[in-house]
Amino acid sequence: MRMQNKSSRGFTLIELLVVIAIIAILIALLLPAVQQAREAARRSDCRNKMKQLGLALHNYLETHTVLPPSAVAKGLCSSGVAASNTLNGNGLVLLLPYLDQSALYNQLNFSLAFDDYSPGSAPLPGSGSTHNADLVNRRMVIFNCPSDPGPQGIPVSSSYMLPGGSNEHRTNYDFIVYRLSYNECNLWSTRDPDEKTMFEDGSKCRPRDVTDGMSNTAMMAETRQACCGNGANANWGGRGYTQIGLTLGFGTPNLTVRKSGSYPGGSRDFAPWLGDWNSTGSSHVGGLHVLLGDGSVRFMGDNTDRGIRINLDLITDGNVIGEW
Nearest 5°: phi and psi at 187? Predict the structure, then answer.
């Protein structure tokens, strides 16, 4: 009986190309879903960090009976009362013991400056010293949103530098302040209602001061590390020239355009950088997180009405906040 050999048939080139095309289509369909899931996890982590900061602020309040100032003895004081020594400290440093960072906090020397910027007459103790600079010149995960790719560092200049000229590490979360207080010191207690926020240089805000209600007033907001086309937002350890904090009512969230007569056409787009200092923003699609005075965190859309944003900034304006 004759046996017939049957050879197995392989894929033709066309069949192989079809299989490859199908796999490519499946990957193209799945990849956005995977990326969205990862961003959702990062966004949730970012929100949780703001909640931790809110808890730290309330623990500080329970210990000291007041909320911390956004800045400690900053150097630029065109009006108001300057401190006896310029320290340029960021109020975020005062929260370290409530963020499981007591060991780092206890190493800091609060008799030395945290930033070299000092155009005023008050002495700058430890100018050129690297003690505090070495301690705060590090990335602090609690102050960084995982959705934000950076850059971490702030380019060194005379206006934005730590003692010793060290590079600085930015924070994605900062206090809500009055923008025009950038060159004023210790004037928080005498602010008009249409200017008064929870935080400022030397502020000592208590819940009773927030007559609009803690749940109707913002304590912190997000910003991008990629900032700014003009000036700079803060590093977590110190305060420089324009590094005073954030103002929701200043400009549209995530605005990358800065208007100025010095630019051709009157404006310039600095994307992906935010256009101006004191600007809010994030790497999330469509908006940013806001920490309210009661410790809750809400997501604010980029198109939120400016009037609502201004009302959230202020603590005693008496205006009713609409839906957002």
Answer: -115, 10
